[in-house]
Specification:
The chain contains eleven helices and 23 strands. It is of the alpha+beta class.
Length: 492
C-alpha cells in the first residue's frame, strides 16, 4: 500500500463526496452502498483445460510433444456483481493465447450470460509447459484444442455466475523481493554481444551466465509487490483469491510434461493456508502475471544449484502464498463497491523486416540441414520470413477495470517492470496493478530505452514486433481509461 497515494486520494474523495452530496446524491463513489442498498455478489469456478497427450507444447524455440501431465491445467474464473454492473476475470493456464481465441470466448460469454465483452478480462498465466495456442518460433497452434479452450473458458464464467452469492471484497498487497530478478544485464566492456541477425549493437544480455565476473548490473528494476483481491461470503467463507506477481514462469519440469507451473501450485497452496479446501462451492485460488517481460526467478549473482523436478516452482509458489496469507489478515473488507470497465483498440506499428532482411533470411533457411532450425540465426531467419507477412499496423486491445478503489490494467503483451511500476504510480486510484498477456498476444513490450539497449526481448520476431514507442502509447491509453473510470473524473 502506498500511504502518500492513499492520503491524496482520500483528500480528493472528501471533496468529491461533498460535491456529490449536493449535486448527485444517488451516485456511489465511496466504499458504501448507494441509497437503494444494492447487494454486492461474487462467484467463482475453475474449468479443467488439460489437453490430451500428444499436443504441441509452446514456450520454447523448438517444438515439444506432451507425453505426461504433471498437474492439471485450469481456466480460473471470477464474476463480480455490484447490483448494476458485472465483470468477469479469467486466468488461463497457458503460455500465450491469441486475440481471436479470447474474442471467441468473450462472444460466447456475452451470448450466454449477458456480460459485455469489454467487461470480461481473460489472460494467460504464461506457464511454458502448456499447449501451443499461438504460433511462435517452431511451435504451431493446436487447432483442435483451441475451440475446446474457448468453450471451457465460457463455461467457467457461466459456472461462476451460477455460484453468485452475497459477498464481501477486499484488496491489498505484500512484498516478495527475494524471488524476482531483472534478467537483462549490462556486461563488462569487451564481452561480445551478437544478435541472431549478425549485428553487434546490443548493450545488454538476457540471462547471462550465473556468477560471471563479466556481470555489471541489471538494466532495469523489479516489482516485488504481490497484489491481492479477495472475496468471501457474508458469513466469512472464502470464495476466491486473485494474486498478482511480476514474475515469469519458474519451470523446472521435464520438457514434455504438461504443467501449470507455480501459478497452479500457488492456487492449491493458498487454498490450504486459508482453510478453504473442499468447500461448496469450491474455493478458487488464482495467480496472475503482472509485468514480467524482463523478470525471472534467477539470481544471476549466485551460481546455480541442482534441484529435483518441480522443486523451485513449489518453493516460489509457497513463498508467495505465505506472503499473501500474512497480508490477508490485514485486509479491510467492504460490503459493497462500485464496478466499472473500459476498453479501447489501439493501432500500433509493426517493425517489419526489409526486403533485404527477408532475402537474407530465405538464404539462411534454404541452407539449413533439416526441417527443424537449429541455430539462432536459422530460427530468427524463419521468424523473419513469417513476420514479413504481417500488416504494417495491428490493432491491439487495452482494458481497465475499476473495483472500488482498485484499478486493474490489462495489456496484451509481455510487459516490462518499468511500465508496470509507472502504471501503479500514476493511477488515480488508491491501488493498481497490471495483468499482462490479457485479451490477446502481441509480443514483448520493451520501453523505448530498453529498445535502444537491444537484447533478446527486442529482437525482431513474432515474439517482439511492435513499434519501439508502443509501451508509451499503451501506457497513455491505460491511464486515460483509469481516468474515465475514476469517480473524481466522473463527477465533473
Amino acid at each position: 500500500m502506498r500511504f502518500s497515494k492513499r492520503f491524496a486520494v482520500g483528500v480528493l474523495l472528501v471533496g468529491v463526496l461533498m460535491a456529490l452530496a449536493m449535486a448527485l446524491p444517488s451516485a456511489a463513489v465511496a466504499q458504501a452502498p448507494a441509497p437503494e442498498n444494492p447487494v454486492f455478489r461474487a462467484g467463482a469456478a475453475a474449468s479443467n483445460i488439460t489437453p490430451p497427450l500428444g499436443v504441441s507444447l509452446g514456450g520454447g524455440m523448438r517444438d515439444r510433444t506432451a507425453t505426461h501431465v504433471r498437474d492439471e491445467l485450469h481456466a480460473r474464473c471470477v464474476v463480480l456483481d455490484d447490483g448494476t454492473a458485472r465483470i468477469a476475470l479469467v486466468l488461463v493456464d497457458n503460455c500465450l493465447i491469441p486475440r481471436h481465441v479470447f474474442d471467441a470466448a468473450k462472444k460466447l460469454i456475452e451470448e450466454e450470460t449477458g456480460i459485455p465483452a469489454d467487461h470480461v478480462l481473460i489472460a494467460s498465466t504464461h506457464s511454458h509447459s502448456t499447449p501451443t495456442a499461438t504460433g511462435i518460433f517452431q511451435s504451431d497452434p493446436n487447432t483442435d484444442y483451441l475451440p475446446f479452450l474457448e468453450q471451457r473458458i465460457a463455461d467457467g464464467v457461466r459456472r461462476a455466475l451460477n455460484n453468485l452469492e452475497p459477498a464481501r471484497i477486499a484488496w491489498g498487497s505484500g512484498e516478495l523481493p527475494d524471488e524476482v530478478f531483472n534478467r537483462r544485464w549490462y556486461l563488462k566492456p569487451g564481452v561480445p554481444l551478437e544478435d541472431p541477425f549478425g549485428g553487434q549493437d546490443d548493450k545488454v544480455k538476457m540471462n547471462p551466465p550465473r556468477a560471471s565476473e563479466a556481470l555489471v548490473e541489471p538494466a532495469g528494476p523489479i516489482d516485488p509487490e504481490i497484489s491481492i483481491l479477495a472475496l468471501e461470503s457474508t458469513d466469512g467463507r472464502p470464495i476466491a483469491l486473485l494474486a498478482n506477481y511480476s514474475l515469469h514462469y519458474v519451470g523446472g519440469v521435464a520438457g514434455d510434461h504438461v504443467s501449470a507451473d507455480y501459478y497452479g501450485i500457488f492456487a492449491d497452496r493458498i487454498q490450504q493456508l486459508l482453510g478453504a479446501d473442499r468447500l461448496q462451492p469450491p474455493f478458487v485460488g488464482i495467480m496472475s502475471n503482472g509485468t514480467s517481460g524482463d523478470i525471472n526467478n534467477i539470481n544471476f549473482r549466485e551460481p546455480g544449484t541442482s534441484q529435483q523436478p518441480g522443486e523451485q516452482m513449489t518453493h516460489v509458489a509457497h513463498a508467495a502464498a505465505d506472503v499473501v496469507h500474512t497480508a490477508y489478515s490485514r485486509l479491510e473488507w467492504h460490503d459493497w463497491v462500485e464496478l466499472g470497465a473500459a476498453a479501447k483498440d489501439l493501432e500500433l506499428g509493426v517493425r517489419l523486416p526489409s526486403a533485404e532482411d527477408v532475402a537474407r533470411a530465405r538464404d539462411i533457411v534454404a541452407a539449413a540441414k533439416g526441417p527443424e532450425m537449429e541455430s539462432l540465426a536459422e530460427i530468427y531467419a524463419r521468424e523473419t520470413i513469417l513476420l514479413s507477412e504481417y500488416p504494417a499496423k495491428v490493432t491491439a486491445p487495452v482494458q481497465a477495470l475499476r473495483i472500488g478503489g482498485l484499478s486493474i490494467a490489462a495489456i496484451p503483451c509481455e510487459v516490462f517492470a518499468e511500465t508496470g511500476l509507472q502504471l501503479k504510480a500514476e493511477s488515480p486510484f488508491e491501488d493498481a496493478f497490471n495483468i499482462e498477456l490479457a485479451n490477446g498476444y502481441y509480443g514483448y513490450l520493451p520501453t523505448p530505452r530498453q529498445h535502444e539497449l537491444g537484447g533478446y526481448e527486442t529482437w525482431r520476431a513474432r515474439s517482439s514486433y511492435l513499434e519501439p514507442n508502443a509501451s508509451e502509447i499503451i501506457t497513455a491509453a491505460i491511464l486515460d481509461l483509469f481516468q474515465q473510470l475514476h469517480p473524481g473524473e466522473q463527477s465533473e
